[in-house]
Amino acid sequence: MKLRVGTFNVENLLTRHRFANGGRIDTTAAMSLFHFPRADQRDAVERSLAVALEDDKRQMTALAIAESQADIWMLQEVDSLASLQAFFANYVHRIADYRYSHFALIDGNDRRDIDIGFAARRDLLAPQAVRVVSHKDLSFAQAGAYDSSLARFGIRPGDRVFARDCLAVELSFGDRSLTLFGCHFKSMNNGRDDGRQETLPIRRAEALAVRHIVKTWFGAPWREANWIVLGDLNGYRHGLGPLGELVDEGDSGIEPLLEDFAVDPIVHLPRHERWTHFRRYWSEAEQRLIDSHMPLDHILLSPALAAANPQPVMQMIRRGLPYRVPLDPREPDRSMARLATCSDRYPRVGWDRPKASDHCPLTIDLVVPASKGGLP
User: Fold this and answer.
1) What mean pLDDT value characterizes the chain?
2) What digits encode the pLDDT tens for the residues 226-280?
3) Dihedral angle at the C-alpha atoms of 58, 63, 64, 69, nearest 10 degrees?
4) What is the pTM of this model?
5) What is the C-alpha separation between 319 and 312, in angstroms, rounded?
6) Residue extents of the structural domains in the chain
């Protein structure tokens, strides 16, 4: 049995025009240019602006999903089940070759209320063949993931381990099954030089918790079962620097998922293709701008799946990224003059926005073998 599985951080697919504790980045810039004597006037204008910007953005998000042609999706930063269903009905299904359903989303722990959503091709499964389990209430202690490095964050052993959730989706295909563990780990606080290392202990705890969940789910034959850990893990050991140079970034926090556990098939790609997110930031320590192409998004395979797919086909759809992103890390010319004239984007993509997302979708083509293992 062959499947194409995808993960995509769709960047704030919202039903709200603002977060509870403040505005959205995509509306803040324009709103800062105007003065509104009354709060209700400002709110009305911000609502109108958000709707217009969201429509442009979601057309491009849908194009990226349609072009990817995945059978199964795990999506991060989705506001609600209603927004997930509306997005597919009114954007994706207007342009895609497939029709999706089997939608699932459970409210997680994120303070902005952005969650993990699931969708699959409508004709792929019967509704009763999909089983969804949230792990949002799992504590550090229950997962065996608490240590002294977490205490300085004010974290206690009984606190919830996941910044969002680990959404488990079990799919039954007659004589075989596939279980997805969708994740969105703690962010690296982009824009801060020390953000990656500062938040690393939390991501490590989340990775340990996912490892615990998988082993508990399948028991002793976990290596022989068909499972995937996928999503925006906000962690990577190697990034790409200038000219596509491989940069060893040190510990990432997600090592527990890779050390004698899951297999990362991205190593089969050419080095310059191993990225899903681009970051340009000012380093106070070095007093200069730093560019980095990063593999923040991952599809990690169980040992059994990896053995059945020794040379899997993976793809990243990057036409929805903004023009400021150099699509080939090896290219030395990153001037505005060159980047702004590259014609490999969807119509109406802008320099920084609108865009499909700040991530690109990642997919993998897999053969799913008959497997051992079962329900927890």
Assistant:
1) 94
2) 999 999 999 999 999 989 999 999 999 999 999 999 999 999 999 999 999 999 8
3) 130
4) 0.95
5) 22
6) 2-367
φ, ψ at 190 (rounded to 5°): -55, 145
Which superfamily does 2-367 belong to? Endonuclease/exonuclease/phosphatase (3.60.10.10)
Which pLDDT score is estimated for 371?
67
Long-range Cβ pairs for the range 100-105 (8 Å, 24+):
100/73, 102/127, 102/130, 104/130, 104/132, 104/167, 104/169, 105/78, 105/80, 105/81, 105/167
Name residue, tokens 């429509």: 55
Pull the structure tokens for residue 213. Answer: 């969940």
At 65, which amino acid appears?
Answer: I
Distance, in Å, from the CA atom of 117 to the CA atom of 341, rounded to the nearest integer, reads 35
SS3 of 338-369: HHCCCCCCCCCCCCCCCCCCCECCEEEEEECC
Lookup: tokens for 342:
């590259």
What are the pLDDT digits (tens) for 54-113?
A: 999 999 999 999 999 999 999 999 999 999 999 999 999 999 999 999 999 999 999 989
pLDDT at residue 192 is higher than 70: no
